[in-house]
Amino acid sequence: MLGKSKKAAGIMLSSVLLLSTMAACSSNGNNNGNAATNNPSPTEAATEGGEKTGIDTSKKVELQFYMLGNAPKDLPKVEAEINKMALEDLNATVKFNFTTWTDWDQKYKLLLSTGQDVDLIFTAEWTQYQQYAKKGAFLDLEPLLPTAAPALNSFVPKDMWDAVRIDGKIYTVPATYKEYVTNGFVWREDLRKKYDLPTPVNIETFEAYMEGIKQNEPSMQPLALGGAIDQTLSDSYLDFERKIVGPMPYGVFATYQKPGEVTAYWGSPEHLEDLKRFKSWADKGYFSKNELNEKDTNQDKLTNGTAAAMIGDNPTRYNNTMSQMKSLHPDWELGYTPYGRTNGYATPVHPIHNGFAVPKSSDNAERALAFYEKLVTDKRYNLLTQYGFEGTNYTVEDGHYKMVGDANTNGFPREGMQGWAWRNPEFMLFEPSYDGVKAIFDELDKIQVPDIYTGFAEDYTEYQAERAALEQVEKQYLFPLMAGQVADVEAGLNTFMEKAKQAGLEKIQEGYKKQWLAYLTEAGIQ
Amino acid sequence: MLKKKGVLRELYTNRILFLMLVPTLLYFLINNYLPMIGIYYAFVQFDFNTSLFQMDFVGLKNFEFLWKSGKLTELTINTVGYNVAFILLVNFLSIAVAVLLSEVKGKWFKKITQSALFLPYFVSFVILSVIVFNLFNYEQGVLNTVLQQLGGEPVDVYSKPKLWIVFIILFFLWKNFGYSMVIYLASITGISEEYYEAAKIDGANIFERAWHITVPMLKNTFAILLLFALGSIMKGQFDLFYQMVGNNGLLFSTTDILDTYVYRSLRVTFDMGMATAAGVYQSIFGFTLIMVVNTIIRKINKDYALF
Known about the structure:
By secondary structure, chain A is α+β, with helices and mostly antiparallel strands. Chain A has 22 helices and twelve strands. Chain B is 68% helix and 0% strand. At the A-B interface, helix 1, helix 2, helix 5, helix 20 and helix 21 of A face helix 3, helix 6, helix 12, helix 14 and helix 15 of B. Chain A: It comes from Paenibacillus harenae. Chain A: This is Aldouronate transport system substrate-binding protein.
C-alpha cells in the first residue's frame, strides 16, 4: 500500500539508530569479507587458469541485485528463468530487488550506508554516483574485471571505462548505448497548427506559443512545471538561455564555452531578470499558482490534455509521452525542438548516466561481475531481462519490438526492469515509434560535443553542514520566487540571498569553485 | 517494592517470575538498548571504508546544520506546538465523544458512528494530500469553483501559511481522534455499573453522572496516553506535514517541523552522522520532557505517574 511505503520514510529518521547499529555490526564483518574476496582473485585465477570464467564458482551464492523503480508484474517468472541459467553458468542465483520510486533516494542512501547485503546496484549521476564513489561506497572494479568479466571488459570501449573513473579508479560498469538526454521544448503541435502559433525554437517563440494557448484554450494550463521547479524550470532555462555547462548546484555558474569562468548566478542581475520573467509567466497564468503542490507528473498533464507544453524534456521521454498520448487521443500531436537545434551544440549522454556498481559491502564481487557480464553480453539473459518472454510479453515484427496486449495487461513491458544500464546496442529492439527519436539523435550527432560536466565529482565534506542548511533555505525562499509567488521579486531575492549567506553560501560556492577548477585542470579542459 | 538489602532474597523467592521476565528483558536489550551504540554516529565523520569506532571523531560538527540555517528554535517551537495542540485536542475531543457515545442507547447508531469515526485512521496521508489539493487548488479546486459560482473571489489557500496551522490540526484530528476515542470508550465500559446505579438512586441526572463519575474515572487512561504521547513530542507527524506542504516554501514558516526539515536537508546528502545527530537531538529533547512531566504528575498523584 502507498501508506506503508510513506510510513517507511516517516520512521526512517527515528529508526536511524537501529539501522546504524546494524551497520556498525556488519561493516566490521564486511571489511574482513572484502579483504578476503579482493586478495584471492589473482591467485585463484592463476591456479585455475583454464577455468571458463576465471573465478572460483565452487560455492553456490545468491546475488542481491538492486534496481530503482517498480518491479514488473512478471518479474518472478523472469527471475526463475534467469536463475536456471545462472545456476548452470555461474553456480549462482540472483534476487532482483526494486526500491519503487517512492523515496528511492532515501532507500538508496540506506542501502549503501548501512552495509546491507547488496552485490549489484544501479548508479547514475542523478543518484550521486560521483559523490558515493569519491566517498568510497563502491568497490574498485579494475583489478577484478580481467578475471571475473573478461568479455565485459573488452565489450565496453576504453574511453567509456576512462570516463567513469573517479580519482583514477573505475567504480561502475557504464552502459554502452549512445543516446541523448539533452532537453528540448515540448508542445502540442495540433493546437499550434490550429491557432497558427509560432513553432517554439527559443524563449520568445515559446512565450508566444504559451500566450496563444492562453488566449484560445482558457481552460488549459499552457506550461506544466510540477513541484520540482528547480529542475523543470530553472535548470532547463539556464541550459537553454544561458548555456550553463551542466545543472550546477548552489547558484554557481559557468557556461559550456568558458567553463573556467565561474561566477555566482544567484543574486546577480541575470538571476533577477530571469526570476522576473518567471513571475511574468505566473502572472499571465501560464502555469498554476499552486505549481509547487502539484501531484501529477508533467508528462501525464500533457497526455491527458490539462497542460500544453513543457519547457524541457529529453527526446526519448518526449517520444514516450507522445506514444502514450496517441493511444488515448489519436488525433493529438506533440512537437519537439531540441535545444541543440537553436544553440548549435548537444552533448551525448555521459557514460556515468547509466551504470552498475558493486558496493564495498558485497561478499561476492567476482560472481556479481560475472553475472553482470552475462546480463550485458549474453543474448539470452539480455533479451529476457529487457523485454520479457518472447511470445508471451513481446513479439518481433520486421525487426521491431511489439508488445503483446497493452501496458495494463502485459506483465513485462519494454525495459520493464528499468534495464537502461545493461542495454546492449547489438541486441536492442525498438518500437516503430523510435524512428522519431532516432531522427533527433541523428540530427544531434552532427553537432555533438563532449559532456564536460558529468565527470566532475564534488566532495562536500568540507561544507556539508552549510550545504544541508542551504537546501532548506533554497526550498523556503527561492522556490516561491521561481514559481512567481512572491509579489516583490527584488525584495524576495534579497531575502533569499541574506538567508543563504547566513547558511554559509559563500563558503559552499568557494569550495565548489575550487574543486571545479581543479577538475578542469586535471581533465585538461581549457 | 524492593528494599536494598533484600534484592538477592527477592530474586530467589520469586525466581520463577523473574525467569519469565527474561525474554522480555532480552528483547528490550537487543532491540532497544543495543542500537543505542549507534548514537556514536552523531559524533563521527561517516566513512564507508572503516567501522564505526575507527571513523574520525568530529565532536558536534554533525549537529551544526541544525542551527546553521537559524531555524532550530522555530522548528522546535513548531514541532512542540503542533504536538501539544494534537495531544490536547485529540484527548479532549475523544473523551467528549466517548462519553456521549457511551450514553447512547441505540446499538446500531452507536456502532455506525463508532466505525465512521474510526475509518479515517486507515486513510493514508498520501491519499488525503491528493484530496486536499483537489479541494484547495487555485485554478480548479472545489473551493474556488464554488466560490466563483457564488460570485466570490477565488482564494489562494496555498499561499497563506497561517491558515495551514488550522488545516494541519484539523486533518490530524479527522484522522486520529477516532482511534483514541475507541480506547476511552473501552475504559468507560470498564467502569462498574454500581457507581451509576448508586448515583441514580441519589438523584443524579445524566450530565451529573457523566461529569462526576465517567470523567474522573478516565483520568488514569488520560495520564497514560498523555505520557506516551509526550515521549514522542519531538517526533512530528512526518507524513502529514510532508504530504500536505511538500516543496511549497511559502508555507514553511508555520508548517516546518524537525522531521520535515531534516528530510529536506539530508534528502540528497547521504551522511549518516548528520541524520543521527538530528535523531539524537529529538530523543534527548523527548526524554527530558517526559521526565519532567512524569515528575510533575508524580507530585500531584503518585498513582497516575508512569513510573
